Amino acid sequence: MSTSLSVCNHLHDVQDFTPHDVTERLRAAKEQCRLSGARFTPLRQQIYQLVLEANQPVGAYDLITQLQQMRLVAPDGVDDASAQKTTKNVAPPTVYRSLEFLLGEGLIHQLTSINAYVPCCHPRAQHTAAFLICAQCQRVQECSSVPVQEMMSFAEKDVGFVVERSVIELSGRCQACQ
Fold this sequence. Notes:
The chain is 38% helix and 19% strand. It has five helices and eight strands; from the N terminus they run βαααββαββββαβ.
């Protein structure tokens, strides 16, 4: 992990996207994948869209449930809204592979303390972020400020520690819940 990372000196609410923002993020992700030669499959797009549209951090099994609800199908040849619908199963490993892809592309972050995913506020810009997680309302704010970068720089340059992955999460109460 390099220390010449993106720095932003303010907080971002990670669940504050308009429908236009979601569309733009999806378009940008498709383009990023096209340029890098990565496959942005329909399932990966669906999962990314669900994470972008979520109003709080979303877990893998929540995503599986949402995908299964989206895949409710009526029996062949029946077009009646009252017909008994069946669910096409979504395999957990497939969803986890898609989440790993999105993490690898820098499009989402994983919050390990609550085992959930949020959109990245600065997708495609390699950075280390600290997350402020409200225990009351589940609001998540992303911060990739100078002090966060200084901590990474200290570990790598002063101590000689090679950082492969970092997760900085602070749990408490947000400004609105205090």
